[in-house]
Structure formats: structure tokens, C-alpha cells
Amino acid sequence: MTAPVSIENATKTFGSFTALDNVSLDINAGEFIVLLGPSGCGKTTLLSILGGFLSPTKGRIAIGGKEMTNVPPAKRPTTTMFQDYALFPHMKLKDNVGFGLRMRGVGKTEREERAKSFLDLVGLKTSADKKPHELSGGQRQRVALARALAVDPDVLLLDEPLGALDLKLRRQMQDELKAIQKRVGTTFVHVTHDQEEAMAIADRIVVMNQGKIEDFGPPSEIYMRPRSLFSAGFMGEVNFIPGKVMEAASGRAVVETRLGNVALPGTCFTAGVPSAGDATTLCIRPEHFRGAGEGDAPVTVMGQATISGSAFFGTHYRCHLAPMAAPDMSIVAHMPQSAAVAEGQAVALAVNVGDIVALPSKQA
């Protein structure tokens, strides 16, 4: 089964501390949502409210159109999967997976059949009679997932389930988790602080900060067209170039920066085209700098810079650049792996106009 989730004005306070601040969010049935943000941003509090482990100080929660705000965890159509997996060490895998069914009064034969079918779903059917200590970390994670899905929840809540795995295994499990979610069609709400993980698995990402939602949308939109300076900076490395709007008319604006004036179309202003005199910040990802004349899109050149340092990352060189117009400013740019990169080398700071995002500076 699967169901949509509706969160309306959810707030959670602990004494004078506000962990969740008037959060509203609609999640579609069968959607894979990732709650992303730094420690203390409210993402785990929101997940706990969805699971019924915490009650909101105010606000409303509905699952499948049914009021769930004050319904206890055991009576909600949700299952929560935690980072530590919480498998019973003395039980075989099939009994671990079937435990929730046993608690619901499902007979032994049906319980074992369903447990084995879900172990098969996660690639562990032949290990049904093993115990958790005989498995690797990744295999135990799959057993915990099978147990959570076996009770057929409308919504599966995942609290940093991949956090204990090493990098290679975590990436493998990201792919498997996404594939399993597509097969079963259950609504997934997944908490993580890992930006790469969020982009790898989410249909939509909810970026949270200080108890509020900063941004919400598909991974490509969150990364390429962020709606706040926090979202832009949290989703990956970015250059913030402060500026001031000199002219604004007909959906376009000219922004004055220390690197020169930049004419931008209205599409670059994700928070709306500002007025003349407004402070704004240009956000440019390191991979968006390019050589003048590269590509077909309109390019703006923001002066010359010299390479002050570089490191080879396999797919590219990560270079620190000192603009000649503002030598105290540091710009990070990615250059092709085939480029001849040398300290002191002069390069043009060229970028496709459409790759620039301009946001109000007051959000900093």
C-alpha cells in the first residue's frame, strides 16, 4: 500500500527551544522524499512527528487523508527504519522479517512465506535461516528494510539508515534502496545530512534549516536553481559574489560586482527580479566556469584571474583563482582533466549567463 502525507503548520517546541517552526509539506503517494539538512535543523523531529513518536506542539498531520496528529505509533500506517537496524540477534532472518506480522496475529505459514518473499526482494532469500551476526553491515541493512516493508506500511520512515555503512557500500545501497522503492511503490520519507545521498535517491528534496523548510523540489532544481543562499551553499560548493542591482527593467537586471557588471535575464532571479539599488548575491558553481567561447550559450566574462593553487580530482582540476580586479577574493573553479594547469597561470572568468543564480543578499 501507499498513501499521500499532508503536514500543516507543524511546530514543535521543547521549553524555549523551537525545533520545528510552522512547517507545511505535501508528499505524494509513492514518492521518495528526502529530508536534508545539518544537525539540529529539525529533520529528525519532523520524521518523529510523522511516526507518532513525538506530538506537534501545534499543527496537523494526515496520512491517506486520515487525521493522524494524536494517533500513537502502533496504530499508524507507518513503519520506521533506524540507523542501528535493531535486529533480534537470537532470531533467524525469516523470523526477524516476520516479527511485525507475528505481532499482528498472522499465522506461521503465511508469515514465513511473506518473510521469504521480502527477503527475496532484498536479495537474501537463500539466507533466511541465518542469524544477523552471520551477515555484513549491508546485508543487515537489507534485512531491516525487508522487515519494515513486510507489514505493508502506507509510509516508510527512514532515519539515516545508511549512515553506518562505508562510502562504497553506502553508494551501492543507495541504488538498491531506490530500486526497491520503485518496485514496491511505498511512500518513503528518508532523513540524511548527506547531499550526495539525497540527490542519488530522492524524487524531491526538502532542505531544512533552523526548524524551517528552506527549499523543496527535484534534486536538479535544488542544485541548479536554489531559492535561498543557505540552500545554495548546503547543496554543494558555490562561489558567492556580492553585488548591487544598478538597473532593472523588462524582466532583466544589471548587477554591479567587484568583478564587473553582469547583465542577467529574469530567469536567473529565483526569488523574483529585484529593484534598482537592491543588494544581491550571484551564486556560481565551480563547474560552471568555462573558457571564453566554449559552448553555445551566451557567456559573460568577469575579468581575468590567476591560478593560486590546484588539486587533481580525477574528473577535473579544482582550482583556486585570484581575480585581478579583486585579488583578495578567492574563486573556486573546476577545469578539465586535460587542461594544462599551473600556478600563476592567467585564465578568463567566463560563465554561461543561464548558469548564474542571483538571490537577495538579506538571506545570508
If you had to describe this structure to a student in words, what would you say it looks like?
There is one protein chain. The chain contains 9 helices and 20 strands. The protein is an alpha+beta fold. The chain has 2 domains: 5-233, P-loop containing nucleotide triphosphate hydrolases (Rossmann fold); 237-363, Nucleic acid-binding proteins (OB fold (Dihydrolipoamide Acetyltransferase, E2P), Beta Barrel), CATH 2.40.50.140. A 6-stranded mixed sheet has the order 6-7-8-3-9-10, sandwiched between helices. The chain has a 5-stranded antiparallel sheet with strand order 13-12-11-14-20, with no helix packed on it. The chain has a 5-stranded antiparallel sheet with strand order 15-19-16-17-18, with no helix packed on it. β16 and β17 form a beta hairpin. The model has no long low-confidence stretch (mean pLDDT 90).
Give the topology, please:
Elements: E1 5-14, E2 17-27, E3 32-36, H1 43-51, E4 58-63, E5 66-67, E6 78-82, H2 93-97, H3 99-103, H4 108-121, H5 137-150, E7 155-159, H6 167-184, E8 187-192, H7 195-201, E9 204-209, E10 212-217, H8 219-224, H9 229-234, E11 239-249, E12 252-257, E13 260-265, E14 279-284, E15 289-290, E16 299-312, E17 316-323, E18 331-336, E19 346-352, E20 357-360
Parallel strand pairs: 3-8, 3-9, 6-7, 7-8
Antiparallel strand pairs: 1-2, 1-4, 4-5, 9-10, 11-12, 11-14, 12-13, 14-20, 15-19, 16-17, 16-19, 17-18
Helix pairs in contact: 4-5
